[in-house]
Amino acid sequence: MNGPFEFALALGDDALVAAQRLGEWATRAPEMEEDIALANIALDQLGAARLLLSYAGELEGAGRDEDALAFLRDDREFRNCLLVELPNGDFAMSMVKLLLLSAYQVPLYTALAGCADERLAAIGAKARKESAYHLDHSALWVKRLGDGTDESHRRAQAAVDQLWPYHHELFTADPAAPVDPATLRADFDAVVSPVLAEATLTRPATGWTPGGGRDGVHTEHLSFLLAEMQVLHRAHPGAQW
Amino acid sequence: MYGNDFAPEEDAPGGGLLGQVEAAEVALREAAARTREAAPAPGEDPAAYFADVIDADQKIEPRDWMPDAYRRTLVRQIAQHAHSEIIGMQPEGNWISRAPSLKRKAILLAKVQDEAGHGLYLYAAAETLGVSRDELVELLLDGRQKYSSIFNYPTLTWADVGAIGWLVDGAAIVNQVPLCRCSYGPYARAMIRVCKEESFHQRQGFEILHTLSHGTPAQRAMAQDALDRWWYPSLAMFGPPDGDSTHSAQSMAWKIKRFSNDELRQRFVDMCVQQAEILGLTIPDPDLRWNDERQAYDFTQPDYDELMRVIKGEGPCNRQRMEHRRRAHADGAWVREAATAYAAKQRAESQREKVAA
Amino acid sequence: MSAPSEPPRVPVTSPLWEVFVRARRGLSHTHVGSLHAPDAELALHNARDLYTRRQEGVSIWVVPAGAIIASSPDEKDSFFDPAADKVYRHPTFYEVPDGVDHL
Ligand SMILES: [Fe+2]
Ligand SMILES: [Fe+2]
After folding, report:
1. What are the GO BP annotations of this UniProt entry (chain A) (predicted)?
2. What domains lie within chain C, and their CATH numbers?
3. Measured between CB atoms, does B274 come within 8 Å of chain C?
């Protein structure tokens, strides 16, 4: 990604795919209160996605609105990071994923709030507050799962082991973008390290750094996610809903 | 006749039903303002005090004396209502991932989330009567308490999401608006909150169907098909006809229930007819017609044998709904245990710090 | 004669918290209901999600037996603002065609 269009698209896709995954938790959360919390976070991500994709459509100037971008692109045209498209797994997996995502989104949206592009700045200012809450909520759970029971610790550690490699992609340098992701890494570390420490969780020692999402080269999971998300919209071309 | 003891609809903010909810809230405040000793005088019969409060249209509160049967009736009714909200998330939750636009996806997510909230408000109201939520959830998962049978029908198309909002939430509101005046305070207050939120649910459902029925031929057909499948099950939501309804008379005397099943069902039909016309959809009842003498619509009753079969567990989705709920509960056990263990560790920690200090 | 099965999980009951919400500046906290949570921090999160989805509050207290915990004022922004744009939650968001009653 480099220009504002690609940038808005990538951020919008991150938020949209994250919302889709979080929405899968509805009616399945470990506690009824948590069902409500996860839906709230999904709604926030979806709200950010709509703003970002609408703006991306305007920047592109080809007449595509949020729905055209969400429902009528194939997986190779999506620009989200791989982290958000990975299956939900258990609750530990979903909370660790949300921790990594929101620890990236908070400094990203904060930087965006101060950028020269007024529209992006407004989106950043709004989304930043929401992401701060997502970070709070996921950190709260990661601590409880990591330092809860033996079983929850095992599951939380497994989640960190599995997801950690995917966070590198978030910080791939892109000096031409409105916010260069590489500049966000220090903030991310400053937030995530103490949470993992308090949760008695360790980072895996692996040099594997999967990526490719920003170039449209995804995991096998995304195509299934989109098939489900897009099926109804595509079955009725041109229809209003 | 039902409905005339409220503010005139034209003046009611937010439309008729919302206006009635607000009127109930005002009545609740007024009743609270009327003088009454906070408890029976020494030597006064608590049963007489209870009867006086009910007579005066005031509210019974959690620590008041109440007949055992009143308590039992309320626990059962509120719990089954709570279960219905929670199980009711499933049929619509089924379409969150496939909602046809991002706006619809957001609205549906918010709606399903609201239903979880309704369940929690109601469990909280039930808990004021001395049962725990865990016990009630257990009763649901063991199949010893029921939930509304309507949720044992499948949502096969997107239009079903519209039909549920319009008809099922609509019927729920007709049922629940009078409950805002229920004699038990915590239940009445929970219902006021719930009804205000339900109004959004019904409107979004109506809007979905309105868009579909004014859309492509395929969308229109989808909307009519949904109405065809959901109409009679929605009528059955009001329960068996008055002649067969067992608990009604006592509940009415206690002002838990304020209108009979048949009265509410009639009210629902009367308001749907005109709305269906505006949707341009046909209610699947050839005998539906205005009766000038009764000032109400004549209509075909739902199949109550079918209702009984579904209540017994033989609806299309009973097993699926219960299985889903049980699995979510079981899969979440380790998370709830972890949170409890963590809280215990934190308490022990702060104890140690206090001792050390 | 019962088949061997896993040992039953001990059911965990999380404590009940009463929730108080200040609806607007200038009003006092009012009891809005209760909820379950294993600890205070989660109780606050749950209270925010359950009782202020429609911007019903600017401050929350959750009270276990004996203690009162208030949401801190500097968390207010991320705590309460996000509900501001969810207009679709309010029934007036929906345009009802002329002539529709009882909706
Ligand atoms: Fe509800
Ligand atoms: Fe509802």
Report:
1. phenylacetate catabolic process
2. 16-70 (3.10.20.520)
3. yes
